[in-house]
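Q: what sequence does this backbone want?
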């Protein structure tokens, strides 16, 4: 369930006018910006952007970029984008890092529906004039490249049908590959990148029942390399994304120096999807409410914005 508390009665024109007043003159009224945009869903935000451009002949996103700063500006920019465009931007940023952030690519390719992933690939190509898979292939190598390109180009079956016999046989294939430390076996990549999420859950359950340990735990031995870690993230994202995102948030908050990029990414991308469930997992795991942990590790308008997206008033 979502944490976003969206306004039911809103006027895109009135919102655009308030936003215009908040960015005119000396200084920006950040509280007014948060009070509006942190309480509007994706469709409403799109209508506001259209109304703003029609009224003032300028792009609201660009205006906010010029008026805001720091982590708050980055978070607001991510938030106001159309969700598919947002994922395209997140993927591009991850690819262009000095060392590609494969976790972000895995999150996008493994937690979205087939239709959503296809829309992200289209948005990426429209924005950057390159395909997502082309840029991935250019900035990665070896087994990581094979895995990530396979994940972003897949179009999984999205139904509920399960083939129990197939789950049994593919659980054995995965177990043999892990036992032999053949993590990069083409069958491992094929299974994880093509099977439906429902089918994969049956396979992972069969693996646990047969071998007394979850496949994700079996992957992370003491000497796990980057490819093993990537496979682990794939399985976590496919099997239980809410628990995966709780862990991302926990690590972002508890590390020495908060990881604002990860914190922003999860809150902004999940606020309209399942952030309420992620918050519950966080509390069970840490005995601290997520909004309290975020408030403790952030400050100013950035804090106010994130806490509002979490369903609380700062």
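A:
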């Amino acid at each position: 369930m979502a944490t976003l508390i969206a306004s039911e009665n809103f006027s895109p024109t009135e919102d655009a006018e308030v936003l215009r007043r908040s960015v005119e003159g000396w200084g920006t009224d950040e509280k007014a910006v948060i009070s509006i945009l942190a309480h509007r869903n994706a469709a409403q935000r799109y209508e506001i952007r259209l109304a703003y451009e029609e009224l003032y002949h300028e792009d609201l996103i660009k205006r906010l970029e010029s008026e805001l700063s720091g982590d708050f500006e980055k978070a607001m920019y991510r938030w106001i984008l159309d969700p598919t465009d947002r994922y395209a931007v997140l993927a591009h940023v991850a690819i262009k890092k000095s060392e590609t952030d494969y976790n972000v690519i895995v999150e996008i390719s493994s937690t979205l529906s087939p239709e959503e992933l296809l829309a992200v690939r289209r948005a990426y190509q429209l924005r950057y004039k390159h395909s997502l898979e082309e840029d991935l292939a250019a900035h990665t190598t070896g087994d990581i490249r094979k895995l990530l390109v396979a994940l972003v180009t897949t179009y999984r079956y999205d139904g509920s049908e399960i083939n129990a016999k197939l789950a049994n046989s593919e659980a054995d294939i995965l177990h043999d590959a892990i036992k032999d430390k053949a993590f990069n076996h083409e069958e491992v990549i094929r299974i994880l990148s093509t099977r439906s999420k429902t089918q994969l859950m049956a396979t992972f359950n069969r693996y646990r029942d047969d071998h007394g340990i979850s496949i994700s735990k079996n992957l992370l031995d003491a000497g796990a390399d980057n490819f093993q870690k990537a496979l682990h993230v794939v399985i976590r994202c496919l099997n239980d994304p809410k628990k995966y995102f709780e862990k991302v948030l926990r690590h972002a908050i508890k590390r020495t120096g908060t990881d604002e990029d990860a914190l922003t990414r999860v809150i902004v991308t999940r606020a309209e999807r399942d952030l309420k469930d992620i918050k519950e997992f966080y509390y069970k795991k840490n005995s601290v409410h997520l909004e309290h942990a975020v408030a403790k590790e952030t400050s100013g308008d950035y804090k106010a914005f994130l806490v509002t997206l979490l369903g609380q008033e700062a």
